[in-house]
Amino acid sequence: MAMKIRLARGGSKKRPFYRIVAADSRMPRDGRFIEKLGTYNPLLPKDSEERVKMNLERIQHWLDHGAQPTDRIARMLENAGVREKTERNNPKKGAPGKKATERAEERAAKAAAAEEAKNAPAEAPEEAGAEE
Question: Which segments cross the bilayer (predicted)?
Answer without folding.
Answer: none
